[in-house]
Recover the amino acids of this structure.
């Protein structure tokens, strides 16, 4: 019997956390999504939402095999590693995937003089895997991970996971410049879930900033025949009222193809 997939939003904000009451309905933590497949967890990005996920994962006290896929090295996608509790637990085995130079970059950010210990010195067994965009690999038996180069300052990696007759694409921090929309459409073809960069509202996109709009996500989703476009990575100044209005507009214009992520919400596949 194929394993059930549960994808949970733990961090939905871009740039920097936002914790005021006016931002609480959708959430103020930066990017982190977790796909649970049986006993193991596959995590997309290590934004500040990783801290809450870490508490949940550590609560059982049992050995956990975790996979963390880093899209790029900007701080809003890494800051949660500073408070990721499973790193201090010897029963944790954590595999981290990212572009070449992965370990050296993380050690520079999370290590003296900026942090007391590196990611690999805190008690857990940590293994680093360098991934070139365009490469495929198998993080677990029966699961295939594919990658695609995104358009973002400094570069980004988009990930696709296929297995158990299901598929999820993580497509954050990617601008639809040049032929990117066509390449991403091919990459996401037939996916059940497309986690989409909706950092900019329609009409507010800034060329060269490496982000997208929910309208562009809907266009890619339709062309690729995906089941659901889950919009996230909201700009830091988009409060609950603004996002609610955008979500209502997106639902009306896309027939429900686009849904806006809120922290704690779960998509079951």
């Amino acid at each position: 019997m194929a394993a059930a997939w549960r994808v949970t939003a733990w961090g939905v904000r871009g740039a920097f956390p936002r914790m005021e009451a006016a931002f609480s309905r959708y959430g103020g933590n930066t990017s982190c999504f977790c796909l649970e497949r049986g006993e193991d967890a596959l995590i997309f990005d290590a934004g500040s939402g990783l801290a809450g996920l870490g508490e949940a994962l550590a609560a059982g006290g049992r050995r956990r095999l975790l996979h963390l896929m880093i899209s790029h090295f900007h701080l809003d996608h890494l800051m949660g590693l500073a408070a990721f509790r499973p790193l201090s637990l010897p029963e944790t085995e954590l595999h981290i995937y990212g572009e070449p130079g992965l370990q050296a970059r993380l050690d520079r950010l999370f290590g003296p003089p900026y942090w007391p210990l590196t990611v690999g010195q805190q008690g857990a067994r940590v293994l680093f895997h360098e991934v070139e965009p365009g490469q495929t690999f198998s993080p677990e038996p029966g699961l295939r991970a594919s990658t695609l180069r995104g358009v973002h300052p400094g570069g980004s990696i988009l990930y696709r996971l296929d297995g158990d007759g299901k598929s999820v694409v993580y497509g954050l921090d990617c601008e639809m410049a040049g032929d990117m929309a066509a390449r991403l459409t091919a990459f996401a073809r037939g996916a059940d879930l497309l986690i989409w960069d909706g950092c900019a509202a329609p009409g507010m996109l800034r060329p060269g900033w490496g982000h997208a709009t929910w309208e562009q996500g809907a266009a890619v989703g339709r062309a690729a025949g995906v089941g659901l476009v889950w919009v996230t990575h909201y700009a830091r100044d988009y409060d609950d009222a603004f996002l609610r209005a955008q979500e209502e507009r997106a639902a009306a214009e896309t027939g429900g193809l686009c849904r806006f992520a809120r922290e704690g919400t779960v998509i079951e596949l």
Summary: The chain has a mean pLDDT of 96. The chain has five helices and 14 strands. The helical segments are 49-58, 102-109, 180-187, 214-224, 240-254.
